[in-house]
Each structure stands twice: as structure tokens, then as C-alpha cells.
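User: Here's a chain of 291 residues. Predict its fold as C-alpha cells.
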Amino acid sequence: MEKVLEDFKQWLRLDGKSKKTIENYSLDIGQFLSWITERNINLGEISREHILNYKVEIMNSGLAVVTVNKKINSLRSFNDFLIEKEINLERVIKPGKDRIKIAGGSENNVDVYSNEELEKILSAVDEEEVTLRNKLIVYLLLYTGVRVSELVNIRIPDFDLLTGELKIIGKGNKYREIPLNQKLKKVLKSYLNKERKENKHAEDSQYLLLTERSPKMHRDTVNYVLRKIGKDLDFKLNPHKFRHTTFTLLLAKGVDITTISALAGHNSIETTNKYYLNTSKEEKAAAVSLL
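Assistant: Prediction complete.
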């Protein structure tokens, strides 16, 4: 698959694409190639059904609509490449159908959990049948705002329990430190001293989150855990929605945008402004109710 990706990059260069476009397209297609490899799908076997399943998966991962549409654009170019190289002659991408339509005024809306929903979530993870590991997953998502990709890559040495900080290597290998609140530290210590020690991978793995089968939790398992916790709730649990909730709450409590940007690991304050200085759906609904 690496050779295919390199051939695709060269094809984009010859087509006159900019360095940034090639970089973005390559990242998107690299993720797609990993997805088909995990499912033993050959390039020549990629079908319309596979694309639709992939689209559903990336939509459910909590990505913004604009990001999903960018990935569709990348896949369209990759589809053109496969056809031109006679690797797969099927037109599997249909941009008009595959791109998600955005209504005017809806761009960059952030979907967050309400205070009532947060109470239900925290109550659900306090149930006896919820393991300490699964409770810790929810606490980390809510109280640090980490991305799910960052969550599964957290290692034990990334924590400094004396200073109460978590070190995260985020997008583009960007480093940041996130303070841990007392609630999170308490659950973390309980997990480290009990459940994790009992896992058969504990001695050989530096990763924080383990499963019975693996020394490192996969992001799909995080989604499964959240579905399991939320099975009795009247709303779905989504990793990225926790992230949006974290930073929206901080903004509402008066934390400055520069600090929020640093905690979120954004490349610039403009990115933070784009998402968190816009009103949420709930705020818009509340405003309309005043009419």
C-alpha cells in the first residue's frame, strides 16, 4: 500500500497539485488505505458499498462536516487515479451524492452535551457494572478534551501525578500539557492501582488503556465502550462531542480563548475561534425561543 500511496502522490504532482493539497490528499488516502487493509479489501475490489460504509464510519467518528467533505474530495481524486492506472475501473465516488450538504448558517456549529446529559453520563459511569477503565475513558474525554486518537496513545510515563499534568503529542507531533482535575486523578489512581495491574499486558505495555486481547486499545474499542455505557441513555456518546463540550464549557466559564486553544492543541487561535466562538445549536434554539 505504501507504493500505491507514493504513486498517487507522484500522480498528483504531475497533475499540478500544490504541495499542501498533495499533503492533505495523501493523509486522507493513507487513512483510507489503512481502513481497507484492516478489512482485507484489495484495491481492485473497492466498491461503492465500501465507500458508503467508510463514509458512515468517518461521520460517526465526530468529524466536522467540512472535514468529511474534504475526505470525499480526496477519495474522488484517488478514484480517478485508480481508473487511469486501470487498477479499479469502477466509479465508486459520486461527489454530488457523497458530499454532505451544509445549510446556510450551519457551518462550524459545535454539538455539545447539555448539563442534564452530562449528569446522566456521569451517573451512568458510576454504576457498579462499569469498569474503572471505562469510567476513566469518559473522564479523560470530558476533563481533558483529548482527541480519541490521542486518548488511545496515552502512555503511563505521559502522566506526572505529582504536578497533576498529562503530556499529549497531538496532530503534527505538537506537544502540549493538560492539567488534571481532582476527579480525574482519583479515577486514574484507582485504575492504575487495581484494574490495570490485573491485566495480563500490564507489565509489558506502557500504554494506559489495555484490553484483554491487546496491550493497546484501538479507537474502535473506545466507540464500543461508549455505546455500551450509553445503551440506556436517550442519546449517543461520541468522543469528539466530549471534546467540543469540554472547550465550550471552559469558554462559558470565562477561560480565555488563548488558553482554550493551547489545551485543545489547535495550530492557531483562528481554529479555536472558528469552532468555539460560534453559538451552539442549543444556544440558537434558546435564542429563537425568546421570540
